Amino acid sequence: MTRMNYVRENVPLSRFGVLVAQLESIVASASQKSPDPLLCFDLLSDLLTALDDEPKESILLWQRKCEDALYSLLILGAKRPVRRLASVAMARIISKGDSISIYSRASSLQGFLSDGKRSEPQRIAGAAQCLGKLYQHFGRRITSGLLETTIIATKLMKYHEEFVRQEALLMLQNALEGCGGSAAASAYTEAFRLITRFGIGDKAFVVRIAAARCLKAIANIGGPGLGVAEFDSLATYCVKALEDSVTSVRDAFAEALGSLVALGMNPEAQVQPRGKGPFPPPKKLEGGLQRHLALPFTKASGSRSKDIRVGLTLSWVFFLQAIHLKYLHLDIELQNYALNIMDMLRMDTSFDAHVVACVLYILRVGVTDQMTEPSQRSFTVFLGEQLQSPEASPSMKIAALRTLSYTLKTLGEVPLEFKEVFDNTVVAAVSHSYQLVRVEAALTLRTLAEVDPTCVGSLISYGVTILNALRESVSFEKVI
């Protein structure tokens, strides 16, 4: 220690050292004068920039002083922009310096939060944000503290200030994502209870959004300790939350719902936590798609039916993206889900434009856009089969035709395998008894003509011949 002080005293101050000294000065004078938020913000911004350029040897010289100053600034009750930068700086300096201090810093923050008073909400929020940031970067090293952190979050949820409750759940989200599924089972049980009991139904919409993000975090880390009953329960909460009056809340829960159902459909990705069992063995969420995505969509009614359908539409897309991108299902398998999606239109005999638009969005973004060219070729044949199905409702045929047009435009050509069923699909739809199906079939023919004129050349010639014959027939009748 003596040697380190000697080196510090005899080496010119670097830019980083100067900034740390300024930060210490601000904190030291806080008892006489409250720190200027703008000055602190600028100083912390410069500090983060200097950290990127500073060699590790110099950082080690100033690390302890910098950490102490940042900690003091946070528990002084800094405003949100300042405490965000201070939290980032704390994680950055520990990462670039001696990371052994993560244990003492996390412990001191937990102690402060455990002993915190309700009369100091700004201080509590600052400490919670910093602890969450440390978990985000070093969670795997401090998993043993996850249960205590979750208990602290439960305590903070009883504060009257919504920003404290929000920070509590954001801290929990970072802690869950940082630790993954490697913490004790009791920590995840407590987190599950906290989210469902306090977070989802909170009166502040920002807190409800934070709760939804916690649910997504649980799905992202493999749902440690969750059985089929818990998956069903969480998904039901999410579906109910799609009736919320705030759009951003509905969107957040829609994403969480899609992530949870995707995990439930992939038991091999579900994580078993540490600790005393027994834990339920991973099982597939049988009927999860129908129960949590399809049925609520078809049964949506009332003044918020459109909001619910839009939310479920987003859930479908998030589900399909997770299936393909996270759980690495082949893109050709997305075609199997297309039938479930189109089935939501089977009972739509009166044609609801909003319902059809939602289904089209799912098919386009969730299925077609994720497919490679070979899978898109196969998908055109699949859509043709749906057009030939006698059980397909008019809305299903319209959705199939519109999706077919989009897929053909994306491909830029008409696959040979689709040309073989062309007459029995698109051409047959032109004479369908339902007018909107005929119109959509005509639009699909136009797309075919744009993509591959030779594909519809003979059909156009036939149509022109018929029109000429009809015109001559009308002219002959007038003469008579």
From TrEMBL:
Source organism superkingdom: Eukaryota
InterPro entries: ARM-like, ARM-type_fold, SWEETIE
GO BP term, pick one: carbohydrate metabolic process
Protein's name according to its UniProt entry: Clathrin/coatomer adaptor adaptin-like N-terminal domain-containing protein
Protein source organism: Gossypium mustelinum
